[in-house]
Amino acid sequence: MNSNPVAIVTGGARGIGEAAVRKFSELGYAVAVLDVNRVLGEALAQELQAHGKPAAFYACDVADAVSLDQLAAEIEKKMGSASVLVTSAALIPNTESIMEMDLEAHDRMWRVNYHGTVHACRSFGRQMIAAKGGGSIVTLGSINSVLPLPLPAYNPGKAAIARLTQLLASELGRHGIRVNSVAPTYVMTPQLQARIDAGQRDLAKMMQSHALDFLPTPADIADAMAFLCSPSARAVTGILLPVDSGWMASATYMTYAGGVPWDA
Ligand SMILES: NC(=O)c1ccc[n+]([C@@H]2O[C@H](COP(=O)([O-])OP(=O)(O)OC[C@H]3O[C@@H](n4cnc5c(N)ncnc54)[C@H](O)[C@@H]3O)[C@@H](O)[C@H]2O)c1
Description:
The protein has one domain: NAD(P)-binding Rossmann-like Domain (Rossmann fold), CATH 3.40.50.720. Helix content is 44%, strand content 15%. It has helices at residues 15-26, 38-50, 65-79, 103-131, 154-172, 190-197, 203-208, 218-228, 247-250, and strands at residues 6-10, 30-35, 55-59, 82-87, 135-140, 177-184, 240-243. The radius of gyration is 18 Å and the shape is globular. The site of nicotinamide-adenine-dinucleotide has 29 residues, from helix 1, helix 4 and helix 6.
């Protein structure tokens, strides 16, 4: 069996999850890439293997609790017990009205984003408890975790994940398992660029509400995850760590009716 510590990344085939896969692989973990996207997931695992890094792709729909449990057992047999879990799998919507939204799509988003996070934390959390080696879980929050934005399933789902993270931290702390969340602002993934190009996100508007004049990259988010899973964060659990170019500090500040104290 593989002797490297094992990191599991749901939604690891692309975007922020892919950056997490690359980061934990760089740090010496054997990485399991769990995703519905077989083409990208397999290509990523094969690329890492070609560089001599232990990695494997597992097709997985995080909304399905039973198959996720079975997969956790299969991965444990093949790679060993999980030390790290990152729950990045999610569906990302565009602006919607609650009065007019499609309820099927609403429910599916909850099943993937919120329930999928619960399922992964249960399947691999139980594994970490049984292995008695501690562990570290990072859930994916967002600026949506803290303030309302017009995304009726996604926004309250991210708030719920922040609370879930605190509950899990409280429950798993006595097993030496830490559970934290990262809260990115808009992250410059190829998918965000595509939404900007399609007119679904306004880049100028985005930049008005940040303290810094750049948006984080997926690698910036993965660096924060690596910190949270490292011994340097041994006393950190149950937090929501903004990686947001100052959005939480500045979003309301920038809207003050008296203006800002510098020339716009
Ligand atoms: N990109 C951003 O601006 C941003 C900002 C804040 C938070 N986030 C959060 O970060 C996480 C990753 O976002 P991203 O931008 O990398 O998105 P993305 O769409 O690029 O990647 C999401 C991945 O999840 C996979 N996935 C979707 N449904 C799945 C399912 N049912 N089971 C398994 N895998 C599934 C997709 O195939 C994809 O590979 C999400 O939780 C998102 O909410 C993203």
